[in-house]
Amino acid sequence: MDEENSITIFQYKKLYEAIMEIAEAVCDALQKHSIAKLMQIDNPSFEQLVVICNSIVELLDGDDGRHLDDATEVMRVVTEVSRGITDKCNTTLIDCTTHLEDILERAIKKN
């Protein structure tokens, strides 16, 4: 494997780690805060996290699939979280919390 591919693999891994950190932070926030408090979070906001997740997924699109599937799933759930907060839907947020916990548990088992 040449040096260029090693750097690319390293970068994919870092992007994957970044989106998993977002998943963990979102999951933690959902467990700790009410909808009213979640609506006040703005650095970054949940809408901004959706944009960040979308960007990471786009960058991972060239990966061999090891990271793309989980990253895409995180992006979809974070999008649902953002909608759930906007719609003030506790059921959606509970479902998203469970989904994120499942994703994170799978990620731990992979590594």
Percent of residues in β-strands: under 5%
Radius of gyration: 15 Å
Q: Major beta sheet, specifics?
A: none
Number of strands: 0
Give an overview of the whole structure.
With 111 residues, the chain is mostly helical. The chain has one domain (3-110). Helices cover 83% and strands 0% of the residues. It has five helices and no strands. Helix 1 packs parallel to helix 4 (68-87), helix 1 (3-32) packs antiparallel against helix 5 and helix 3 (46-60) runs antiparallel to helix 4. The radius of gyration is 15 Å and the shape is globular. The mean pLDDT is 91.
Provide keyphrases for this structure.
single chain; 111 residues; globular; 0% strand; mainly alpha; 5 helices
Short note summarizing the structure:
With 111 residues, the chain is an all-alpha fold.
Task: Furnish the topology, listing elements before pairings.
Layout: H1 3-32, H2 35-40, H3 46-60, H4 68-87, H5 90-110
